Amino acid sequence: MAALEIEGKIQQKLAKQSGQTSRGTWSKQDFVLEYQDGSFPATVCFTSFGDDKVAELDKYQVGDAVKVSFNLRAREYNGRWYNDIRVWRITPAGQAQQAPAPWTCQQAPAAVPPAAPAPTFADMPADDDSQDLPF
């Protein structure tokens, strides 16, 4: 799936939540992002799940313009479906993605020995009926 991204302003940060499961502790924080949908503003609620993602969200305040990269998921519970819009990265809005540096060769390539000439019909072995295979 292609990365989903959206830019907008943080409109609201909800309270942090945490808990304990058989797998260990967990933490999450939801926030509301306002973005332009054509001529009208729209809002969406995102979930920052995990200590590292909650800490990343702590860097931003209400009113900050951010770019949010996220995944969409849905789950069924008792015959109803629930969407989960989970953040995997938040960066300041308008910040260009850093492209990886192009690969460059610092050394000259090793000398390649010349290739052997392609075989010709004269190089083929003579016909030997005793070596003829039936298939």
Give an account of the 3D structure:
The protein has 1 helix and 5 strands. The longest helix has 8 residues, at 51-58. The chain has a domain at 4-92: OB fold (Dihydrolipoamide Acetyltransferase, E2P). It is mainly beta and 135 residues long.
Task: Reconstruct the topology from this structure.
Layout (H helix, E strand, L loop, with lengths): L3 E18 L2 E14 L2 E10 L1 H8 L6 E13 L2 E13 L43
Antiparallel strand pairs: 1-2, 1-4, 2-3, 4-5
Could you list some keywords that capture this structure?
5 strands, single chain, OB fold (Dihydrolipoamide Acetyltransferase, E2P), elongated, mainly beta, 50% strand, five-stranded antiparallel beta sheet, 135 residues
Short description:
The protein has 135 residues and is mostly beta strands.
